[in-house]
Every structure is written in structure tokens, then in C-alpha cells.
Amino acid sequence: MGRGCVKKDASLFRKLGASALIMTGKNSARQNGSLEDVQAALSGQGIAFSLFDQVEPNPSIPCCREAARAAQIAQADFIVGIGGGSVLDASKAAAALVKNDLLDGDVFGNPLTGGALPVAAIPTTAGTGSEVTQYAILTNDEAQTKTSLSNEALFPALAFLDGNYTHSLPRAITVNTALDALSHAVEGYVANKSDPWSRAVALSSLRIFSHALPALAEDKIEAQLRDSLLLASNMAGVVIAHTSTTIVHAMGYSLTYFKNIDHGRANGLILGPYLSLIAKHKPELAQEILSALHIESTHEFSALMDRLLGPKESLSPEEIQAFSDRAIKAKHVGNTPCELSAEDIATLYQQGFGSGSIPL
Ligand code: NAP
Ligand code: ZN
Predict the structure, then answer these.
(1) What is the pLDDT of residues 195-224, one digit of tens each?
(2) What is the DSSP letter of 60?
(3) Burial class (CB in 10 A: 0-12, 13-18, 19+), 114
């Protein structure tokens, strides 16, 4: 981690092999200097590389297959993913597809007995923490949602965190991705799968957010804030690698799949009412989160979320019903620290998309 770390620690790439496939999205890696740094680092180490620069946001299985084919053609020993969570997840999925001959229907939930190529992950958003998780979240058209591939073989072998690469993020993506990381820290803190260690890491991430959220709300996005957000996001990624996520993420997937709302924003829309729900059932957990954030009440937390989110999209009663019916079937329900019915989930959607803040 740190300015210039890709070039400074370039020799680490050598441990992964002699030939690499670099994966990026269509534009940003060229614009923020990360692609140039990686190419120089690999060249300096005598590592051959080719480039796949066609990863789309919310990547699909066909996109990952195309990248896997490019890796096979290049006889790549490893993959370097440079970008937001979409590129990092696509890199992990492509790395798995190189080593496992899978039909589309067999990708999700597959034990990946063939393992995966090693991946070096270079995040250029501060949000998903994908550089330290075993998840690759892909669009699942058959189930009309986003589905997580979860396998230890998908943990990146290396991650480089250089806050400079996030400077070019526009405000909206900066806020949305920060809300994703915040959601990971909050959900990970309360998750049934949490333990004292994961809660300690989550609190460290939340304490960074205690400064970062007001700065974001006031539009004071400076270099130091970028570094802080990248660290907070990375820590929150470590948290969900241990705890997984809860109902907020399950609810967010329908918002992304059917309404095209960015992943982080989708979570952010639900987070205010969710913390109020937690405060009703597990007041001590909600209070610990609020204390770490230096926020007085769930009311104040929701008001801050509203400021960050700005004008909200709307959901029809039919959409709320349909999305709630989907979310109640998700495995995330069992990791949420209170009993939930489809009606409770519908209420969270209603409150999240309502205007103004949500009282306790
Ligand atoms: P993203 O979908 O990766 O990227 C969104 C947009 O940001 C893209 O248009 C991208 O452009 C642009 N971008 C990226 N870095 C930039 C930079 N430095 N400057 C300017 N623009 C930049 O967004 P994300 O929120 O990071 O990732 C969301 C995905 O991650 C979702 O699919 C979500 O489900 C997944 N996710 C995964 C995990 C995990 O543990 N694996 C956890 C949470 C979320 P280019 O396309 O040109 O690069
Ligand atoms: Zn997320």
C-alpha cells in the first residue's frame, strides 16, 4: 500500500510467473495511470503481458469467458486486474474459468476443483474490497440477479493499493463506492457470522468513516481522504471475507439488476432504515456502530445517508413486492441478526426510498 507501490514492489509480480494477462475496464485504467504503471512494472521484471480491456460494469459470464480465452491464448501464468470491483471480480472469475471447464449453468456454486490462476488485484475505486475477498460477483441472467462465486481459490495472491489511482473518480462514483464499503463494515459488524476479530477490523474501518463521511457530504474530496477511503474499503473487504454480507446486499442486488442502480448506491439506499431496524432488535450493536462513526442517533445517521444520496429513485408497490419476495429467499437472511419477514423487507425498501430521514 502507498504511493507508487506498484513500481516499488514490482518484483512481487515475479512470484506469480513469467507471463500475464492484464484486465481492465474500457477507459479508466488508461486515464488514471494505473495501466501504464503496471505495464512498466511487468516490463521491468521481464514479464510478458497482453491486455484485455473490455470488462463491463456488473460483469457477465460471457465477458469472463472471453477474458479467460485471452489468458489461454497468451499462455498467461497469472492475471493482473486493474479497476473497480467489476474488473477485479471478472479477473477472478476468468482466472477460475481458465482452470475449470464449466458450462454456464455450472459456474455458480461450483467447487472449482481445478483451482484458479493467481490474480494480482489493483483497485481503482475505494469500495468493494474485492482485492481481499474470495468472492466474484457476476450478473446471473438465469436467476435475474447478481450471484456471488465464493471460493478460496479466488482470493487474490497480491493486492496493490495506491490512492493516486482513485483521484480521477467522479463524485458520484466516489460516494457510491464509499457507501458500499460502509455497508460492508456495518453489515459485517452485525452479521451472525461476525466474531470479535472481524468486529475489531470493522470498527477500525468505521472510525475512518467517522471523518470521511462528513468530508464526502461537504464535497471536500482531497488526496488524504482518497487514501483513507481506500484503507477503509480494504479493511471492510477483510471483514466481509470473514462474515459475508446481510440482507442489505440481497436487497441491493434487485435494485442493480432491475433498476440499474449502482451497487454501492443500492446498499446506501437501504442502510439508514437497516441501522434503525438493528437498533430495535440489537441496540448494543447499533450503538457501537454509531459511537465508532461519532454519530449520535440512527436519525442522524439516516439524515447523513440522505445527504450523500441526494434525490432518490422511486419504486412502485409492485417492484417492492417482487424485490422483497426475492430477498426473503436469499441466504443473507440467515446472516442478518434479527428475524425478517417479506413484509419487514418491504418496509425497509419503502423507508429507504422515502424522502427525509427515518426516525428510530
Ligand atoms: P465498477 O462497476 O467496477 O466501476 C464503475 C465505473 O467506475 C466504471 O465505469 C469504471 O470505468 C469507473 N472507474 C473505475 N475506477 C475509476 C477511476 N479511478 N476513475 C474514474 N472512473 C473509474 O464499480 P465498483 O463499485 O468498484 O464495483 C462494483 C462491482 O463490484 C459490482 O459488480 C459488485 O457486485 C462488485 N462487488 C464485489 C465485491 C467482492 O467482494 N468481490 C464486494 C462488493 C461489490 P472503466 O469501466 O472504464 O474502468
Ligand atoms: Zn458490496
Answers:
(1) 999 999 999 999 999 999 999 999 999 999
(2) B
(3) middle
Quote the cell numbers at residue 302: 439516516
Q: Which three cell numbers stand for residue 164?
A: 493516486
Is residue 110 exposed (0-12), middle (13-18) or buried (19+ Cβ within 10 Å)? middle
Q: Is 127 in the pocket of ligand 1 (CB under 6 A)?
A: yes
Q: How far is the CA of 232 from the centre of ligand 2 (A)?
A: 13
Sorted by sequence, the CB contacts under 8 Å of residue 227 that are 6+ apart come out as: 163
C-alpha cell at 173: 462514483
Long-range contacts, 100-105 (Cβ 8 Å, 24+): 104/61, 104/142, 105/142
Q: Is 33 in the pocket of ligand 1 (CB under 6 A)?
A: no
pLDDT digits (tens, 9 = 90+) for 279-317: 999 999 999 999 999 999 999 999 999 999 999 999 999
Residues 6 or more apart whose CB falls under 8 angstroms from that of 170 comprise none
Residue 113 cell numbers, joined: 476443483
Residue of the nearest CA to atom 9 in ligand 1?
57
The C-alpha angle 159, 164, 165, rounded to 5 degrees, equals 60
Q: With DSSP H G I counted as helix, E B as strand and the rest as coil, what are the percentages for the chain, rounded to 5?
A: 60, 10, 30
What is the residue with the minimal CA distance to atom 45 of ligand 1?
A: 25
CA separation for the pair 98, 104 (Å, rounded): 14
**pTM above the 0.85 mark?**
yes
